[in-house]
Amino acid sequence: MNRFSIHFKPNGYVNPIRMTSQFLGIPLYKVNAFFVDGLLIDTGFTFGRDRFLKLLDTLHPEIVVNAHHHEDHTGNNFSIREKYGLLPLAHPRTFFYLQDPSQWLPWYRRLVWGCPPPSETGELDSKIQTKHFLFLVIPTPGHSDDHVCLYEPNEGWLFSGDLFLSEQMKYLREEENVFSIIDSLKKVAALHPKKMFCSFNGVVDQPMDALHKKIEYLENLQKGVEEGSRQGLSPREIQRRLLGIGDQMGFFTAGEISKKNLIHAFIKNMPEYPSALLGG
């Protein structure tokens, strides 16, 4: 049976709303939404609907934005629209994903987050104005093709959605584009943010260091894959050398999120590498 915990402690203008999915009392995954100056960034996941809406009753959101279509960011879109009359804003492609989430949502993500009901979104403009702040909408594809970040230039706040996540990564979703992720990381690093608000990690106080470390890590990983290829190693051997043995995430997600996907993402960009060897 799934359980849900929520943590919210007002602290200045930007307030994280941390939600954690649990199974048999064991925390599974966490995600942060953010509330700032009447703006709600992401709507959490469906399993946490009742407590999330109860919190929103006290916050009185005026604008709702989705960083992308994934179910832990859009899970309560329908309920927010129904209860408060607020149409969440998002990238144009998000609208099509949310017409029927059951068509693309794998079983294990239904277990962790729940499957959102179909919902609608309005199209984001290039800017969002709240009472005190102006947020620039930055398209940042890679994690998904509809991913966006929000940036407040006067404060230097970057709301990074699932673009950053952590300084290192060993796993990649099948649909993710690692080269687009690198490009998007460089795009937001060029903004020189002073503070980053990450959907996974919450508040990152040294965003420039964190962003540059992740960019460097991914670029070094690419070099390692290319070097292993030149040495005649198979993809599996390259994976073990660079990411270690075992792939528990790949097993649990039936290959949707795996170390293999990350290595193959780099290999598939190498025209000299025979595609027939990708199974090796």
Describe the structure.
The protein is of the alpha+beta class. It has one domain: 4-Layer Sandwich (Metallo-beta-lactamase, Chain A). Helix content is 34%, strand content 24%. It is built from 10 helices and 15 strands. It has helices at 49-59, 71-74, 77-84, 92-97, 107-113, 178-189, 207-230, 235-243, 248-252, 259-267, and strands at 2-8, 14-23, 26-36, 39-41, 63-65, 89-90, 122-123, 127-129, 134-139, 148-152, 157-161, 172-173, 195-198, 202-204, 257-258. Strands 8-9-10-11-13-14 form a 6-stranded mixed beta sheet, with no helix packed on it. A 5-stranded mixed beta sheet has the order 1-2-3-4-5, with helices on one face. Strands 6-7 form a two-stranded parallel ribbon. Helix 6 (178-189) runs antiparallel to helix 7. The longest helix is centred in the last third of the chain and has 24 residues, at 207-230. It is globular and about 60 Å long.
Number of alpha- plus pi-helical segments: 10
Form type? globular
Low-confidence stretches: none
Q: Write down the overall mean pLDDT.
A: 93
State the oligomer: single chain
Q: End-to-end distance, in Å?
A: 38 Å
Task: Kindly give the count of domains.
Answer: 1
Strands side by side in the biggest sheet:
8-9-10-11-13-14
What is the class in the CATH system?
A: Alpha Beta
Task: Provide the helix percentage.
Answer: 25-40%
